[in-house]
Amino acid sequence: MGCILALAMLVPATTVWADGELIGEVRTKFKMLGANDKIVIEAFDDPDIPGATCYLSRAKTGGISGSIGLAEDTSDASLACRQTGNIQLPGSVRSGKDDGEQVFKKSTSVLFKSMQVVRYYDKKRHTLIYLTYSNKLVDGSPKNAVSAIPILDKWND
Length: 157
Prior knowledge:
Number of domains: 1
Structural class: mainly beta
Helix content: 10-25%
Distance between the termini: 61 Å
Strand order of the largest sheet: 1-2-3-4
Oligomer: single chain
Strand content: over 45%
Number of helices: 3
Radius of gyration: 17 Å
Largest sheet: 4 strands, antiparallel
């Protein structure tokens, strides 16, 4: 009973960064019991840069374990980021920190696995770069995707 209570307490903590807005989904595998396996598309706005929006597609495991939140999703994902409005870069972003900044995180298993998006700024090219990858507490996956938003002057007129 203590293990179940401990797991229940961890689940809310792992979904704190789930800020994506569900745009759509497609079924990839039929399951007799529980939800189908699918690919979901989520949109999220960069919390520090209004006018920057990313679209993340990722695999979501179904079945009974997926329906109750116990399945582990694969690390497969794709990312497309676009300038959707006027972008004014805050000073902290303009400095172009080498370690990047996490802008999105979604739990992909009940314990210690998440899909993340990290933002970098390429000062020389005046471009925002977004990288998505999956990691676990101890190890991660080499599967990743990258997207870039060149800061266009037409939005800043």
